[in-house]
Structures are given as structure tokens and as C-alpha cells.
């Protein structure tokens, strides 16, 4: 049986085009919960972005692979149960937060402070410096993502275009020197493809994942991907890969669709994503996520424990 499903967010739970989660998606996640399946997130996003952009409003998730596997955690079930009973998962404010580094109290129910971190791997300092030097020399913006803060070296038109495409807010501007004292878990340089390839030649200790057709990509430590993040969550629950499914649409989802026992590509997924999927559901605009969840629930009916 499938005991846990890992969901990508952008293009899977939420359309890029509208920024609004379909009601059929919210209902489908609830059906999975009621069927006894643990619902988990597997995203390149920072957990604070999930709050800022209302990315999982109205849905229950107990485990989180964030920053493409760099930062992964499992929430305390009792805390989640209480939050759901109080309908806290449906509440949202317009407040955008980019720095909670000094806050010791949980900001929302899915704040990592309400759970156990199962994988936390920073990018090596020398690799961070290479990115900073390249961006400074060539005047490229770069998003820096720490455990509880997000900032940029400066705001460029290209960065604003990238943020607009994913319906994200504008982060504060902070000098790169801050990162010399703090662990960095993801870097998102904003530059053209040719420059990204030139810079990558010097980044022997990093993975580079382009997740959109635009100017940005994710940098993580070498060997750290959504796959390694999923493995850390499965170890926590003592689940095998045969008990895991994944649903996604982008280039950074290919590995997890291949890795899990059932990999489902959205109808709007990249062709490379569809090529490795066990099943292709309809588009996100045609209730595809609901179809994907029902496919897994029906699979479990035919494969009882």
C-alpha cells in the first residue's frame, strides 16, 4: 500500500498562471488524509514562502521536503491534529515575512519549530562565495535562503520578473556579508542560461536545477535533491520506497517520480517528467491533482496491506 504521497507545489498543487489552489485539489488532499495516507510536500520553496503565498491553505501536510531536499522536517502529529481541528490551516493573513531568525515561537502550524528536522544540509562556504563573487562581478541578483530568513543582494528587473512569475513577494536587500556567518541552504541566482553554465563550471560542490523556463535556478549542495529529502522523511516514518508515491510536473520532479513506487506526472508537466512517470493525470486545470489522488486511493484498494 501507499502510505505517503509527496506533492510538488507550483504546477502541481497550484497553477503558475492563476496562483490560486483549485477547490478540487483541496478536497483531494482531504480524501487522501481520510484514507489514512500521509500527505507531504516536496518543493524547491522555502517553508516561509508557503506561508507568505498561501501555498497550502486549507490542506493538511505532515512532512516537508523544502529547498529541493536541503531542509526537511516532520511535524508533531498532535500539533497538526489540533491545528486542523481549529481550522488554522485555512486561515491566512496578508503579512509577508522574510526574517524569523530571532523568533523562538512557531509562526504557523507548519513552522519547523513544531516538528523534527530530519535533514538539514548547508551549501559549503567556498561554493557560496563563488556564487557571490560571480553575481557581484557581473551584477546579477541572487536570492539567499537561510533556515529562517530570505533576502537578496539587490533587486533587479530580472529578479522582479522571476518573482512575478511565481507570485512571490519582494524580499529585503541584505549585503552578502551576512551569509559569511550563517548557514545557507539554497541560492537562487538570476541570470541567463549561458552565464549559469559558466558559473556552474566552478561549482564542483553544488547541484544546479533549473525549475522554470525563466532566468532562475536552484543551487543546493552536491548530491542533495528532492530524492535525498524524500529518503530522509521515509527513514523517519520507517517506510519503504514501495510505500511512497510522488506527484509533480517540473524538471526538479523527475528524480522523485522515478524514485518512488508510483510516480505521477501532471498533464501540464514537462515532457521529460511525463517520460519517467508511471501514470499521467489530466492537467492541473482539468482537476488533474484530484485524479492523481484518486488513482493512488484506488491502487491501495487493489493492493491491501
How would the blueprint of this fold be written?
Blueprint: E1 4-7, H1 23-34, E2 38-42, H2 47-52, E3 63-66, E4 71-75, H3 77-85, E5 115-120, H4 125-138, E6 142-145, E7 150-152, H5 157-165, E8 186-189, H6 193-200, E9 206-209, E10 218-221, H7 226-237, E11 244-248, H8 254-259, E12 262-265, H9 271-276, E13 279-280, H10 288-302
Parallel strand pairs: 1-2, 1-11, 2-3, 11-12, 12-13
Antiparallel strand pairs: 3-4, 4-5, 6-7, 6-8, 9-10
Helix pairs in contact: 1-10
Low-confidence stretches: none
Q: Work out the radius of gyration.
A: 18 Å
| Number of E-type strands | 13
Shape: globular
- Report the structural category: alpha/beta
> What are the secondary-structure elements, in order, as H or E?
EHEHEEHEHEEHEHEEHEHEHEH
Largest sheet: 8 strands, mixed
Q: Please give the share of residues in helix.
A: 25-40%
Mean pLDDT, to the nearest integer, reads: 93
Spatial sequence of strands, sheet with the most strands? 5-4-3-2-1-11-12-13
Give the number of helices. 10
Question: In percent terms, what proportion of residues is strand?
Answer: 15-25%
Q: For the terminal residues, how far apart are their CA atoms?
A: 6 Å
Question: Explain this structure to me?
Answer:
It contains 10 helices and 13 strands. The longest helix has 15 residues, at 288-302. The chain is globular. Strands 5-4-3-2-1-11-12-13 form an 8-stranded mixed β-sheet, with helices on both faces. Strands 7-6-8 form a 3-stranded antiparallel β-sheet, covered by helices on one side. Helices cover 32% and strands 18% of the residues. It has helices at 23-34, 47-52, 77-85, 125-138, 157-165, 193-200, 226-237, 254-259, 271-276, 288-302, and strands spanning 4-7, 38-42, 63-66, 71-75, 115-120, 142-145, 150-152, 186-189, 206-209, 218-221, 244-248, 262-265, 279-280. It has 305 residues and is of the alpha/beta class.
Amino acid at each position: 500500500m501507499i502510505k505517503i504521497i509527496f506533492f510538488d507545489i507550483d504546477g502541481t498543487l497550484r497553477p503558475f498562471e492563476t496562483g490560486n489552489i483549485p477547490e478540487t485539489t483541496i478536497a483531494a488532499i482531504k480524501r487522501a488524509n481520510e484514507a489514512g495516507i500521509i500527505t507531504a510536500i516536496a518543493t524547491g520553496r522555502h517553508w516561509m514562502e508557503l506561508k507568505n503565498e498561501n501555498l497550502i491553505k486549507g490542506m493538511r501536510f505532515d512532512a516537508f521536503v523544502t529547498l529541493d531536499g536541503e531542509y526537511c522536517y516532520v511535524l508533531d502529529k498532535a500539533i497538526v491534529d489540533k491545528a486542523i481541528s481549529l481550522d488554522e490551516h485555512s486561515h491566512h493573513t496578508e503579512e509577508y515575512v522574510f526574517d524569523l531568525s530571532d523568533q523562538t515561537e512557531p509562526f504557523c502550524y507548519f513552522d519547523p519549530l513544531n516538528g523534527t528536522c530530519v535533514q538539514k544540509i548547508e551549501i559549503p562556504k567556498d561554493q557560496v562565495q563563488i556564487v557571490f563573487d560571480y553575481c557581484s562581478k557581473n551584477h546579477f541578483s541572487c536570492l539567499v535562503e537561510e533556515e529562517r530568513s530570505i533576502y537578496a543582494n539587490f533587486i533587479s528587473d530580472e529578479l522582479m520578473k522571476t518573482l512575478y512569475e511565481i507570485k512571490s513577494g519582494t524580499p529585503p536587500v541584505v549585503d552578502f556579508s551576512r551569509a559569511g556567518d550563517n548557514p545557507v541552504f539554497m541560492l537562487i541566482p538570476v541570470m541567463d542560461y549561458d552565464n549559469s553554465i559558466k558559473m556552474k563550471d566552478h561549482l564542483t560542490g553544488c547541484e544546479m536545477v533549473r525549475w522554470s523556463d525563466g532566468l532562475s535556478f536552484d543551487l543546493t549542495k552536491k548530491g542533495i535533491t528532492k530524492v535525498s529529502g524524500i529518503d530522509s522523511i521515509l527513514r523517519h516514518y520507517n517506510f519503504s520506497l514501495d510505500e511512497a508515491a510522488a506527484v509533480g510536473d517540473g524538471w526538479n520532479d523527475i528524480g522523485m517520480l522515478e524514485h518512488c513506487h508510483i510516480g505521477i506526472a501532471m498533464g501540464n508537466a514537462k515532457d521529460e517528467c511525463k517520460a519517467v512517470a508511471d501514470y499521467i493525470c489530466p492537467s492541473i486545470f482539468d482537476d488533474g491533482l484530484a485524479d492523481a489522488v484518486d488513482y493512488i486511493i484506488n491502487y491501495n484498494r487493489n493492493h491491501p496491506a
